[in-house]
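Memo subject: From amino acid sequence to discrete backbone structure tokens
Keywords: amino acid chain, backbone geometry, structure tokens, three-dimensional fold.
Body of memo: The sequence and its backbone structure tokens, given next.
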Amino acid sequence: MTVRDPEVVALIQALDNDLAKSEYTESESFGYSTHELEAGSVYLVGASVGGRLVGIGGIELQDSRFAELKRFYVAPGLRGHGLADAILDVLEGHARGHRVRKLRLETGIRQDVAISFYHRRGFRVVPKFGPYVNSQASVCMQRNL
């Protein structure tokens, strides 16, 4: 699976469309484009059902201490069936394999379902970091691995 695969592009577009429905302004949107995902050091995994890609998630190794989740999404009709857990398990394993100690993420203040999922997985709200420091629409979370 690569960032340029049509199914990956379609899921990233679906994620962007869902975020647009939440009425975030352009300055409040921090999602990586397919070009940024391809150019960066993002490890991307997917979940398939019936041979169709229905979920994706990425992790960017930032240094020996931190990795950041990127472009995490499961198709709406298939949420609640453990796909997000499976994707996150693989991403956490990748981070541990690189001896990363903390996994962090940014999500939007209106992403209640995502925030609940991350809380359930052991993430806690932390002070905003990096490009999100001045964003009123961002919630930053982190967990130890």
Q: What stands out?
A: Residues 54 and 77 are 9 Å apart (CA to CA). The longest helix spans residues 6-21.
